[in-house]
Design a protein that fits this description.
The chain is an alpha+beta fold. The protein is 28% helix and 34% strand. It has an eight-stranded mixed beta sheet. A hairpin with a 2-residue loop joins β1 and β2. The longest helix has 12 residues. The protein is globular, with a radius of gyration of 15 Å. This is GNAT family N-acetyltransferase.
Length: 158
């Protein structure tokens, strides 16, 4: 399971060393993206799990370098790594636990665990922008969406 690092009531986050356990929660689409390349990316990435009553219910992956399958838009903003940001990707909450505040709790506990850390992430669904802004992230860049899917980069810089 990993070592519990931050706790609030019966909800905790922990670094997960058993990546298969976390990947089993992800959508089939995301599994197809991350599982085949994980060995390469695991050297500079950390999986944080969200546990509710000791049961893994979600989490996310922090990348110290560009995540797999980065788009040109993301690569064009890779300067954020040089500015001390970590990329937060593959944020996932088990379907039965969605819309109950667990994703916000995960972000809150992650920020508490890494109080001086700056984060960036990319979304392709504009409705997620409001969620991340409610959790302290700010708009950093927006793609033109002409040749590819529209994307937004949000940052959190404590």
């Amino acid at each position: 399971m990993g070592t519990f690092i931050t706790t609030t009531d019966a909800i905790s986050i922990a670094v997960i060393s058993d990546e298969i356990r976390y990947f089993s929660l992800l959508s089939e689409e995301w599994k197809k993206l991350i599982v085949p390349v994980w060995r390469k990316y695991s050297a500079y990435s950390t999986i944080y799990g969200l546990f509710v009553n000791s049961q893994l219910m979600g989490g996310g992956i922090l990348f110290n370098e560009m995540p797999p399958y980065a788009t040109l838009f993301e690569k064009n903003n890779a300067v954020l790594f040089q500015k001390g940001y970590l990329y937060l990707g593959y944020v996932w909450i088990v379907e039965n636990y969605r819309n109950k505040g667990y994703a916000s709790t995960f972000l809150s506990l992650l920020k508490k665990e890494k109080p001086n850390q700056k984060f960036w992430l990319t979304i392709e669904e504009e409705n997620l922008r409001y969620f991340y802004e409610q959790n302290g992230f700010k708009m950093f860049a927006e793609s033109d969406g002409i040749k590819t899917t529209k994307e937004w980069i949000l940052i959190y810089d404590n």
